[in-house]
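Our consortium's second objective concerns turning raw sequence data into structural hypotheses that experimental partners can test. To show how far this objective has progressed, the report includes one record in full. It was chosen at random from the queue rather than selected for favorable results. The single chain below, 272 residues long, was entered without modification.
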Amino acid sequence: KNWACWQGAGRAQGEILLFLDADTWLEKDGLEKIFATFLRTGGLLSVQPHHRVERLYEQLSAFFSLITMAGTQAFTVLGNRIKPAGAFGPCLVCRREDYFAVGGHAKVKGEILESLALGQAFLSGGLGLHCYGGRGAISFRMYPGGLHSLIEGFGKGFAIGANRTHWLCMLLIIGWVSGGMGLTRRLVQALLGFGGMDWFPGLSLYFLYVVQIGWMLARTGTYRWSTAFFFPIPLLFFVAVFFWSLSSTFVLKKVRWKGRQIDTGTTGKEGP
């Protein structure tokens, strides 16, 4: 991908470069919306497409979508006062001269998550990085090839992304995930008669999690409300895949993607 983007940029004649992943599609007037935003922001504009969820197993991607958005640090109550941690890869817009000034995709050719590194290159170059959600402008469907492709896809890079997330942001995410896991454990224990629980505060907290998760999922993709209601299922799936990703990336130091084995070394970069 990095090689193809670099070659394409070198042959492009326009002043503004637009990079789109092959699994994305533009909604009605989507291109106009994206370019209008870019003309206002400049720098590197990064748009995370709205996630089109079709088959049942794809609902398991819920927490990956939420934490991908949260991990960029671009969607907080502090707004632009916090710099994003990196860019989303599926949709990038920048000026041609800025792209080559920071080294473009050639600079990040060894990275598994090249968009994070490219976003950091724009920030380091003082050109700015701006992240947005793509609802109403651009969409994609991730891993339609089945559950195995979904696990492999998220497992290949999620631990690397977590390793590059600001410690405070990561601490807040861990606290939120741990709270959901702890609540789930207490509810299951109470239902099975293995432990006492105050039902009113417990169910109230569960309901608050459901409402919050449902609200966020509606802004990231076409997830069902039942996914939010039964959030412990995709949450447990997320935790299992995340720990598998940690083990593959930092212990085994190799991940697999589309039949290829990628050596992550010790830095999260693709080996030779």
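The partners drew two points from this record. The radius of gyration is 20 Å. The CA atoms of residues 59 and 227 lie 7 Å apart. Both points have been shared with the crystallography group to help prioritize constructs.
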